[in-house]
Amino acid sequence: MIRRRSLRNYWGSSWHASEGSASFVSTTMTRSEFLTLMGDMHRQQVQILPRYTASGCLCAKVPPTLKQGLVREYLRKRAGSHTSPETDAALVEFQSESARPGMTWITGSDAEAALRSWLSAALATWCGLPRLDHTATYGVRTYKQGSRLTPHTDRYLTHAISAIIHIEKKLVTTDWPLEVLPHEASHVHQVFLTDDLDCLFYESATVPHGRLQPLEGEEYSNLFVHFSPPGWSSKAEKLMNQ
Ligand SMILES: [Fe+2]
Distance (Å, rounded) from C-alpha 96 to C-alpha 100? Predict the structure, then answer.
């Protein structure tokens, strides 16, 4: 039995309560079932670290000119053989070495800087904070056929408020859901990032997320951008070690 629930959609600089275009699908998997798939530290983060929004996650759309720049930079780097197997892929389950995720670094490019600037303002607005500090940009990561992503929360010292941006997919035969556990939700929700709805805002330290179903398709590429409120690191460390 699956219920559908539409959430607000964030387009550029204005808010829209757009029913149907941005939806999270509630599944039958319960909160406790999802939490048991994660390690103790991840569960501790969910319980004790600060939250900034009601649900902890929101579908968004990257402004088209920014998105075009990101895709162009990604394809340029790939064409120049700047893609290599990802060494830090502990949370990605892949079937063989040939299916290890690929990493195409686009950090430091004009396209990445422009995205970072837009996200910094958009995420701060979403969270009701005056500003956010950028802490990391990771990717582009390209998942290969059969991959899964172990449920987790992100590294709490630096990753508090983040975005996942869908960059490209190749020969994907079945939409690949990202499972998330919104604050206070009794059940796991799925979100499907597409070219039209290509970005997820999420509170990365406190919203568990993963991909439980194997990728059915050749490739699926995402970029991850992370921020934290000023003073977050010491505050989070204190809370986690008290
Ligand atoms: Fe993550």
Answer: 7
